[in-house]
Amino acid sequence: MTPIEQLQSALSTLGLKAVEARLEGLLEQAAKKEPSYAEFLEETLSCEVEARRTRYLRARLQLAHLPFLKTCAQFDFGFQPSIEEKQIRELLSLRFVHEASNVVFLGPPGVGKTHLSVALAEAAIQAGFGAYFITAHDMVADLGRAYREGRLDRRLRVYIAPKVLVIDEMGYLPLDDLGATIFFQLVSARYERGSIILTSNKSYGDWGSIFGDPIIATAILDRLLHHSTTINIRGESYRLKERRRAGLLPRSDQQGQETILPTPALSATVTSGSRRKAGA
Q1: Is pLDDT above 80 for 269?
Q2: What are phi and psi of 241, to 5 degrees?
Q3: Are 23 and 8 in contact (CB under 8 A)?
Q4: Sequence-distant (≥ 6) Cβ neighbours of residue 44 within 8 angstroms
């Protein structure tokens, strides 16, 4: 065997696939630049490290079940002036993940709640945290089925384990008694252990109708909002914007805009920014 073939065999045995695939190119480049032994070794190993990180992130993204890939840089803050871009940039620092705090996006359909939720989840994945995305309806249906089959505790771990859990479209459909109880169990299990990013088209004052019981709604909100950031988006739907641009709808100044605000009764509970946990 030639020295190159021996190297390729050794790299294959060690599982260094990226270096094996680029070996000849790396050797040719080294012959031209004549780096030191340390520089050549560093460049060679960096090739493998980067390839493994790429595979790791790709696997994490697949496990997260994100509906699409979006970043905060792609978000049109100019179209949604009710959002403070500085506040979103602060969330991108991922301090809320380190503190196991929650983020809640409130607003009518189409204003970018899911976009921002996915962007934060993707940023968390890039930083090495686990994340999982699911709609509230699908999650409750999944856990309800597990309860009826006697495997709820095991199935709950799927939603408790990720450092970041995105629950989308909370409030679009009301929950029955079982669904409300299961949702309470999940929020309680993640309380101060992992972050929840939640989107809803309902104000907090309407959550009693979502869960069919104001008492359990209050108990859920108490845990969800204890350490949290609430972002209320009062803008127009992006989808309606595109239709209006095409002349299919009247201009926005010819019609009112829907607004969702936290109710006064809960204003003392909702924080305008991430709050550090007591004693943290």
Answers
A1: no
A2: -60, -45
A3: yes
A4: 19, 26
> Is residue 234 a contact partner of residue 259, using CB atoms and an 8 Å limit?
yes
Same domain, 44 and 74: no
In a domain, 246, yes or no: yes
pTM of structure:
0.79
Please check whether residues 87 and 133 belong to one and the same domain: yes
The contacts of residue 134 (CB under 8 Å, 6+ apart) are: 65, 142, 159, 165, 166, 167, 168
Q: Which residues contact 145 (CB under 8 A, 6 or more apart)?
A: none
Q: Are residues 74 and 51 in the same domain?
A: no
* Angle, CA of 135, 139 and 142, to the nearest 5°: 140
Is there a single domain that holds both residue 10 and residue 119?
A: no
Instruction: Say which CATH number the domain at 252 has.
Output: 3.40.50.300
Which pair of structure tokens corresponds to residue 9?
Answer: 């065999």
Which domain range does residue 23 map to? 3-60
Taking the CA atoms of 155, 158, 164 and 170 in sequence, report the sign of the dihedral they define: negative
pLDDT, tens only, 58-98 = 999 999 999 999 999 999 998 888 999 999 999 999 999 99
Same domain? For 89 and 175 the reply is: yes
Domain check: are 132 and 256 in the same one? yes
Share of the chain above pLDDT 90, in %: 73
